[in-house]
Amino acid sequence: MSVRKRGEHWVVDISEKGRHRVQRVLRGARTKAQALKAEARIRTQIFEKKFGLVERPECRFDKFVDNSFLPTKKLKKSYASIDSICKPLKSFFGKHFISEIDTEMIERYRQMRVEEKTRLARKRSPLRVNKEMQVLSSIFTLALEKGLIAARPRTTMFRISGERIRYLTSDEETALFEQLDGCEWLKGIVLIALHTGMRRGEICGLQWLDLNFERGLIHVRNTKNGKDRLIPMNATVRALLESQPKTSSYVFPSPRTGERLVEIKYSFVRAIKGAKITDLRFHDLRHTAATRMGDAGADAFTLAAIFGWSDIRMAMRYTHAMEDAKRRAVEAIAQSQFPRDHSVTNEKPDADQIAVSG
To answer: Rounded CA gap, 331 and 30, in Å?
Structure first.
């Protein structure tokens, strides 16, 4: 019997194929008839849930993102980026109920985003679209947890052949700084990026209290991985920072507001276009710094400490110790004192030769 009385309370115990499914104390039931009605309702709920017959509340996609999804990301450092990614998602899916969105609709969005141009008339990278797909997948995961959808639709990613490593050449650097003459605030930021490998946000958030001129160190806070790090100043960086006017608590304040600098993309893009440099992003200056330090002989552990990489494999891309070791191993064959004769012969050794060799 699935309904019985234990002490003062009626209890329902429903199992399926010998496995306990539901055990509940029916505190409101005073008679066996009330307990049996409660059991019947519970069985109906189990049946409807099992076969997808439960009526789910309808919720528009844009309302769900604004009221349920984004509030869960408020404390994340990447909140601004997530909020920015949600804007095109809301523009495309916004008026649809979240339960109406299927794999076909998601695929149309994915293809549309990778084919259309950005606001700067540039081709949108598949990597950027993949980030949008990741956020969309997280939205559906939350909707599934809240019971708004029965299953999460598939979100397909573009295959990325490998991580981009683009660095600034010497000629490009000269042309870029020629374009930056007269724009001293951006010139200083680019110089810091090239000599320290700091990220754009780290430079924009750099404050005077983060600089220790006595020890020649820059204290980088609010990093991507959440761990502070110390970067030594070289002579170029020290000279720039010492000459920087202190008009704000930030080392590189906004020229308009005097507060924290928020965005430098448009000014940087104008500069690289004027310098006739193609396919260069601000983050590539970080790659440039790492490449140059690796060329100068910095080992992987030193690079990881400077750039804040938790995974040493990130630094291995920029070191040349392993490459040189592989090259020496291959060259050792060519420089061997006893090169082997690889010519092919059909002659068989005679018996005396076999005896000697044995």
So the answer is: 90
- A 10 A CB-CB count for 205 gives 19
Q: For residue 248, which of 278, 301, 291, 205 has the smallest C-alpha distance?
A: 205
Nearest C-alpha neighbor of 4 from the set 32, 34, 45, 33: 32
> If phi over 0 gives left and psi between -120 and 50 gives alpha, with beta otherwise, what is residue 226?
left
Q: For residues 191 and 230, what is the distance between their CA atoms, to the nearest angstrom? A: 18
Q: Which of 119, 121, 126 is nearest to 158 (CA)?
A: 126
Q: What is the pTM of this model?
A: 0.60
Task: List, for residues 331-350, the tens digit of each pLDDT value.
Answer: 777 776 555 555 545 555 55
Q: How far is CA 225 from the centre of its chain?
A: 11
CA nearest neighbour of 282 among 298, 306, 266, 294: 266
Q: Which residues of the chain have pLDDT under 70?
A: 1, 16-22, 47-56, 161-164, 320-326, 336-358
| DSSP-derived 3-state class of residue 21 | strand
* 118, 124 contact by CB (below 8 A): yes
Cβ-based neighbour number of residue 307 at 10 Å: 22
Give the pLDDT confidence of 183-213 residue by residue, as tens digits.
999 999 999 999 999 999 999 999 999 999 9
Q: Which phi and psi (to 5°) does residue 338 adopt?
A: -125, 75
In CATH terms, the fold of domain 170-316 is: hpI Integrase; Chain A (1.10.443)
Measure the CA–CA gap between 70 and 281, rounded to whole angstroms: 28
The candidate with the shortest Cα–Cα distance to 315, out of 302, 334, 328, 330, is 302
